[in-house]
Specification:
2 domains
Length: 172
């Protein structure tokens, strides 16, 4: 198996994938055959705003990975994207299954699930000092729950990555 280790090469690959995802997302709302495929296989998984024609969460993930990979160190890029993937997923699953205490449209239980999943990922991956990674996990959780009009697949890696970058610059 070949792993791409060069930041520029990975940025180019993710840029190409972003263009492809954008084109598919555009086509799913305008090209009948693509609409049919999405209706049959993916609509049951999509959120209302995605069904109404907004980009899917998957498209935002691929788009935001481009600047995350390009601007952050490999360790920060990996953790911020993992925090977004596992944290947001855990928040949704735990929030839907156990959520009782509401924080806006999200649940406290889901947010705690996000934080727990991010901390577990941080410990398993062991890519940086605990204090740096923990600051990113906390910020990922905060931005997962904030009621902002920006997809949290964008907010989480940007906020957690920026936080880890700032905290790491203070730790010698």
């Amino acid at each position: 198996m070949v792993f791409i280790t060069d930041r520029v090469d990975m940025t180019i690959i993710m840029s190409i994938l972003s263009i492809m995802f954008i084109l598919v997302d555009y086509a799913r709302t305008r090209v009948q055959i693509v609409k049919n495929i999405f209706n049959k296989y993916f609509n049951h998984m999509m959120r209302k705003h995605e069904l109404d024609g907004k980009f899917t969460g998957a498209t935002w993930v691929v788009i935001i990975s481009v600047p995350i990979i390009y601007f952050f160190s490999k360790e920060i890029a990996i953790l911020s994207l993992v925090f977004m993937s596992v944290g947001d997923t855990a928040a949704t699953i735990i929030g839907q299954a156990f959520g009782k205490k509401m924080i806006g449209s999200k649940t406290l239980e889901g947010s705690l699930g996000c934080l727990g999943a991010c901390i577990i990922a941080l410990l398993i991956l062991d890519l940086m000092p605990l204090s740096v990674g923990l600051s990113g996990a906390i910020m990922a959780t905060i931005f997962e729950v904030l009621p902002l009009n920006i997809d949290d697949n964008v907010l989480i890696p940007v906020a957690s990555g920026t936080t880890m970058l700032l905290v790491s610059s203070f730790i010698v």
